[in-house]
UniProtKB/TrEMBL annotation:
GO terms for molecular function: rRNA binding; structural constituent of ribosome. It comes from the Eukaryota. This is Large ribosomal subunit protein uL6 alpha-beta domain-containing protein. Gene3D superfamilies: Ribosomal protein L6, alpha-beta domain. GO terms for cellular component: cytosolic large ribosomal subunit. One of its GO terms (biological process) is cytoplasmic translation.
Amino acid sequence: MKTILASETMEIPEEVTVKVSAKMISVTGPRGTLTRNFKHLNLDFQLQEGGRKLKVDAWFGTRKTMAAIRTAISHVQNLITGVTKGFRYKMRFVYAHFPINASITILRSEKVKDEIVLDGNDIELVSRSAALINQKCHVKNKDIRKFLDGIYVSDKGAIKEE
């Protein structure tokens, strides 16, 4: 069954500027600018109330299109969080059998012995980097229940101001 019109709005914080141009959403904040392409989705994006609200519409949408509305709003919220706070992934070295030599040039935490900290504005790039590091250190041909060596994500979220 198709719904004639489904729409959802979201608030935009004061320190953030959002521009919508042909399903390309650009978010500018204190930490920089992030852009996301939504051309593959059959949605309409409109700025309302002087750029303080973003409205997402789907005309004659199916169930997948209705789900895409909330997904698009979540992506824009991640862009806003990225340009205001940023994202941080903390990874820990875990080894029982052999110490792991870190040959990756990323910020290593001085306070904690075996920790890597990944910081950035784009959640997809930061999380993809953490996943690639995890996959690179994966031990093959061993029983994963006993052989837990590797680099794993221990904490993730927005960067907290200290």
